[in-house]
Amino acid sequence: MSAVDINGLDQRATARVVLIAAAAALGGFLFGFDTAVINGAVDAIRGNFDLGAGHIGFAVSCALLGSALGAWYAGPLADRLGRVRTMQVAAVLLAVSALGSGLVHGVWDLIAWRLVGGIGVGMASVIAPTYIAEVSPAQVRGRLGSLQQLAIVLGIFAALLSDAFLANTAGGAAKALWLGLEAWRWMFLVAVVPALIYGCLVLGVPESPRHLVAKGRLAEARNVLRQVLDLHNESALDHKVTDIQQSLRSEYRPRLRDLRGPVAGLLPVVWIGILLSVFQQFVGINVIFYYSSTLWHSVGFSEADAFTITVATSIVNVLVTLVAIALVDRIGRKPLLVIGSAGMTVTLGLMAWCFSQATGTGAALTLPAPWGPVALVAANAYVVFFGLSWGPMVWVLLGEMFPNRIRAIALAVAASAQWLANFAITSSFPALAEIGLSFAYGLYALFALLSLGFVVYAVRETKGMELEDMRD
Question: The organism sits in which domain of life (predicted)?
Answer without folding.
Answer: Bacteria
